[in-house]
Amino acid sequence: MAIKPEDILREVAAARGTAICVPTMTTSPAWRTLAPDDLSVGCSGFMGGASSLGLGLALAIPKRRVIVFDGDGSLLMQLGTLATIAGARPRNLTHLLFKNGVYHTSGSQEIPGGLTVDFVQMAKGAGYRKAYAVSDFDDFKRRLPSMLTDEGPLFVELHTGLADKTPMTDRGGQPFHQQVDSLHQKLRKAG
Amino acid sequence: MPESIPAPLIIDTLKDTFREARGGTATEPLGWILSVPDTHQKTVLAALDKERALRVVTCATEDEANAINAGLWIGGEPVVLMIQHAGLYASVNTLRGVAMDGRVPTFYMIGLLQRERDRDPKESRHSMVRFAEPLLDTFGVPHARLEGPDDVHLIPEYYRLSRERRGPTAVLVGLETI
């Protein structure tokens, strides 16, 4: 059975410590509830940019873990990012891909290639230090600590079902520029 | 008539710009260059390969460069994006969504590949040269031309302006650098 995305996010929220998180698309509403006022910045308004945003943060703050919650449709929009991330070699970047095979927000149309697209092979081929898939929740919980500490760039393809909410059914949250400003200020204070 | 700008002059100006941005603090790297390699600025890119003080991240697309810039800026790092006019056209959505809507300071050096020495860019025979400034105007992006060595002072000026206005600014590299 596919893993519920909210279950994954709940586990990450409990285990992340001081990590910066970059949600996008269908992970955004649940993450807002689970981590309402913290070190996060969502990718909204430029679909496909979450991993690049995460890369910039990871390069700027190498002592802090950065976790990207990407989507399969989103990643396909800027697939070259896999090579860019691999080339930049951020040791502190964890790239979690929530793979459900569809564009959930627009009515669940299948992404090109559907569930047969193998992003793990793509990440490995691009040069990520480690890449693997997880399709069982217990396996995810067992491997989560290493996902947050293993040397990056690390890519994990998570086989998930659909989120209960999407940015279309649950609008809200801070506009992107407020999230940017808030995280910028918090990181400045943190030093 | 426009003149080509030597790469060492641009590199030194970038270093001075980053030093000022860091308030004189000695830091490694001094600053970041996000590059989608631009033929027009190839001598600068070649010189950057030998530079240890500046870290270059080569990006697959200008969309990536815009988002990486946002992450670096949020984390307090000084950044310059080096792209070509064609890349500006390709990345209009992230110019809008990240630099403008996100109010992210974003400073571009944009190469005007195929800009004719004897014509104003607005009169160019090449659409990719001709439309660059009108596109920036449409989006309200302040911009200036680097028409020769005497104009390099515009690099720190427009870099500072991007920080002051919390958004995009650009300088357009008129002739191929040497």
CATH-derived architecture of chain A: 3-Layer(aba) Sandwich
Contiguous uncertain segments of 5+ residues of chain A: none
Determine the N-to-C terminus distance of chain A. Answer: 43 Å
Order of helices and strands of chain B: HEHEHEHHEHHEHE
In CATH terms, the superfamily of chain B is Thiamin diphosphate (ThDP)-binding fold, Pyr/PP domains
Annotated CATH architecture of chain B: 3-Layer(aba) Sandwich
Task: Give the CATH topology of chain A.
Answer: Rossmann fold
Question: Average pLDDT of chain B, to the nearest integer?
Answer: 97
Q: Decide which structural class fits the backbone of chain A.
A: alpha/beta
CATH topology of chain B: Rossmann fold
* SSE succession of chain A: HEHHEHHEEEHEHEH
Compact summary:
The complex is a heterodimer of chains A (191) and B (178). Chain A is of the alpha/beta class and 191 residues long. Chain A is built from 8 helices and 7 strands; from the N terminus they run αβααβααβββαβαβα.
Task: Walk me through what this model shows.
The complex is a heterodimer of chains A (191) and B (178). Chain A has eight helices and seven strands; from the N terminus they run H-E-H-H-E-H-H-E-E-E-H-E-H-E-H. Chain A is of the alpha/beta class. Chain A has a single domain (5-158), classed as 3-Layer(aba) Sandwich (Rossmann fold), CATH 3.40.50. In chain A, strands 1-2-3-7-6 form a five-stranded parallel beta sheet, sandwiched between helices. Chain A has a two-stranded antiparallel sheet with strand order 4-5. Chain A is globular. Chain A starts with a helix and ends with a helix. Chain B is an alpha/beta fold and 178 residues long. Chain B is built from eight helices and six strands; from the N terminus they run H-E-H-E-H-E-H-H-E-H-H-E-H-E. Chain B has a six-stranded parallel beta sheet with strand order 2-1-3-4-6-5, with helices on both faces. Chains A and B meet through helix 3, helix 5 and helix 8 of A and helix 3 and helix 5 of B.
